[in-house]
Amino acid sequence: TGRVWYCPLEAYEERYTLQLDAWTHGRLVEHGLPVTVIDGLPLASSTPGISTGVVLDAHARPYFALAQTMRLIEQLKAERIAPDDVIYLADLFHPGYEGLVYALCQQFPDPACRPRIVAHCWAQSVDPYDFTHRMRAWMRHYELLVDQTIAGIFVASTALQQLLESALFSAPIHVVGLPFDRVEVRFRAPTVLRPLAERTKRIVFASRFDPEKQPHFWLDLVELAHDEPALRGYEFAVLTGASLLRST
Model pTM? Predict the structure, then answer.
């Protein structure tokens, strides 16, 4: 493998995409791979956080990815991307993807001597709990395009692998878990972790407060705790990095 052209997600303070870029880039460098980061462009009129949409901002996501596609094509035109290079997309849904493939297929007519594209799939329309599932009438056509042109898809679990395979994906699928840098996360925690007996008795909900994260299960637990002697004295809290708690 030659150089990795890495296209990260937008960095949001309210999501761990803020850390994800550094985690991923750092691990690629740690493995001795030459890496070039292809950043996108922020939408000038957008707020710093997610204002429309669920997982990423609905307007900023395509704008950011389209800018990355534009910059990749500039690198192709300048003949800086070599046949043994890899283009790594941090999200399988990458607006402008078809334009990138369009340029690659003509600049490198031989598929055996063409830069490969790989991507991380977080869910997509094959997952009935994902927000893209209701877009599946058209999203599945995009996913089929990716499936027929990509060299590899990374997923977090065998469950998602099975969903993709059930949807007749034929591209190689690699189960790699969720990207996570425990050293960086521990750095954010107190230097000395207190023993469990000395910690606050608090039960938290730390996911997005959307149906696929089952917040009602947690709310049921809160109700049950009032009648459960073993849970007396416990506090309950909902965590969010956003300025306001929101839910679909």
Answer: 0.84
